Amino acid sequence: MANKPDYPFDRLEYGETIEVVPGIHWIRMPLPFALNHINLWLIADGDGWTIIDTGYNTDETRQVWEKIFDDLLDDKPVKRIIVTHFHPDHVSLAGWLLEKWDAPVWMTYSEWMQAQLNRYGGPTADIDARMEFYIEHGMEQSGIDGYRETRPDFSKIILPLPTGFRRMIDGEKFPIGDHNWRVITGAGHSPEHAALWCKDLNVLISGDQVLPRISTNVSLQCNEPDGNPLRLYLDSLEKFRDLPKDAFILPSHDRPFYGLHDRIDALGEHHADRLDAAVEACAEPKTSRELIPFLFKRELDRHQLGFAIGEAMAHANYLVADGRLSKAHDEDGLIRYSQVQ
After folding, report:
1. What are phi and psi of 83, to 5 degrees?
2. What is residue 339's DSSP assignment?
3. Tens digit of pLDDT for each residue in 213-260?
4. Where along the chain do its domains lie?
5. pLDDT tens digits for range 318-330
6. Which residues fall within 8 angstroms of residue 298, CB to CB, at 6 or more apart?
7. Any idea which architecture 17-280 has in CATH?
8. Which of 75, 130, 294, 329 is the most exposed place for a label (fewest CB within 10 A)?
9. Rounded CA gap, 31 and 102, in Å?
C-alpha cells in the first residue's frame, strides 16, 4: 500500500489565501456540492498576476475574488487567466474575469471547445440524451429525477467565453514571472486537461488529474458510448511519473501535498481493485447501475449517483476493451456486462 500524502499546510477557510511557494498564492473557494471547495492559484507574473482556474459562478465566489483583488494584488493587474479544463468550477467565471481585467484566457483547444459546446447546448449538455443513456445502463427513475434536479444548467453557470483565446499545447513552455512552466495534458477526466509543471520551483499545478485523497471522476459520456476514458486517464497518470518524487503538488481539491509517485501508485491500485470487483460482480450479467454498489461502498446522494454511474460505465468499458467482460444489448433495452468465459 502506498504511503499517505504529506500535507505541509492546514486547510484554509473559504476566501483565505496563503503563499505556499514564493510568488504562488493558494485560494480556497466554496462549491455548492458534496465536494464543497476548489483550490485556485494566483501567481506573481512580473508587473501583474496570472490566475489559474476561476471558481464556480456564484455571488459568493465573486465577492471573495473582489476582496482578493483589493487586498493582495498590490495595484498590479491580472495579465492572464489559465483554465485547466472546461468543468464549471474551473471555467465558469472566466468571462467575468476577462471582462474585469481585459486579460486573455488560456486553455487547450479541446477544453475551450467543450466549454463552448456546454455553454451553448452542445451534445454533452443535452440532458435528455444523457438520461436516455443512463436509462439504457439501468438507472432507475428516482435516479433520473435526482440527476435532473441536482445537475446545473451549464448555459447559466458558465458565463459567455471570448470567441478568441490563447491555445495551450502539450509540452509547451512559457514563463510566468521569473520561471518557465511546461504544459502536461491528460485525458479521461476531461478531453485535454492541462496541468502545469515548473522545474525551477519543483511545483506541479495538477488540476483534477492528480488529487491527494479522493479519486478523480472518470466517466463514460453519452456522445462516446464505446469510449475508454479510464484507459486514457491511467495512461495520462504515467506522464507524471518522470517528475521528481519530492515535487510539490498543488491540486484543485483538498490541500497541497508531497508524495506524487505514491499517489500515482495508490490511484492505480484503487482502479485495479475496482476493476477486479466489477469482473467478480459480473459472474451474473449486470447493468452499470447494478455495478455501483460493488464499486462504491459509501452511501451516495442524488448528485453523486450521476457521477457514480458514469464511473461504473467507464470501468465496464475498460474491461470490455481488455477482454475481461463482454457487453450485450438485451431484449429489454438494457446494456449488461458479463464475464468472458
Report:
1. -115, 125
2. E
3. 999 999 999 999 999 999 999 999 999 999 999 999 999 999 999 999
4. 17-280
5. 999 999 999 999 9
6. none
7. 4-Layer Sandwich (3.60)
8. 75
9. 26
